[in-house]
Write a structure and sequence with these properties.
Layout (H helix, E strand, L loop, with lengths): L4 H29 L3 H4 L4 H26 L4 E5 L16 E3 L18 E6 L1 E5 L10 E5 L1 E5 L9
Parallel strand pairs: 2-6
Antiparallel strand pairs: 1-4, 3-6, 4-5
């Protein structure tokens, strides 16, 4: 009996889902038998089971997203401080966004322009390529880097 391409894809998807589910279940078991046991040993049984079920669901969803990202054809790159092409902040930068501690809420507020970047709180996330597996030389910013700036706020002065 011949199976269609869709049937084959469905069985592959099911196999991946089963493996992920088993791994997530094992992770929860390892957690509750490890240090987490000290936190949950006093919980009532229904609450404990609900907590463990919720934890396993969160892990399964995170794993599902990881598999989805892994299977994408575009390449994803994170840019930390050492990989950022610009050393000084500009409010209109396509890669940098000032951390909320700087209270830079207006895109026309240029008071922090030219300040050196001291720390990357969250890296810039770039996507190169298309879903067709082409144009890897072109990038698109999925998320700007959130940065702390030197001298941008009294709280940030070392």
């Amino acid at each position: 009996m011949m199976t269609s391409r869709n049937d084959h894809r469905t069985s592959e998807d099911q196999l991946i889902e089963d493996c992920v589910s088993g791994a997530c279940h094992q992770m929860v078991q390892d957690l509750i038998e490890g240090p987490m046991r000290l936190l949950i040993h006093q919980m009532e049984s229904p609450a404990k089971e609900a907590c463990l079920h919720a934890l396993e669901s969160i892990l399964r969803e995170a794993a599902r997203l990881a598999v989805l990202l892994w299977s994408q054809r575009p390449m994803i790159q994170c840019l930390w401080l050492d990989a950022l092409p610009q050393e000084r902040f500009q409010v209109d930068s396509h890669l940098l966004q000032a951390h909320p501690v700087h209270k830079l809420d207006d895109s026309n507020d240029h008071r922090l322009d030219g300040h050196p970047v001291r720390l990357v709180v969250r890296p810039a996330v770039l996507r190169m390529g298309t879903h067709e597996g082409e144009s890897y030389s072109q990038s698109r910013v999925w998320a700007k880097a959130v940065v702390l700036l030197e001298g941008g706020n009294r709280a940030m002065v070392a």
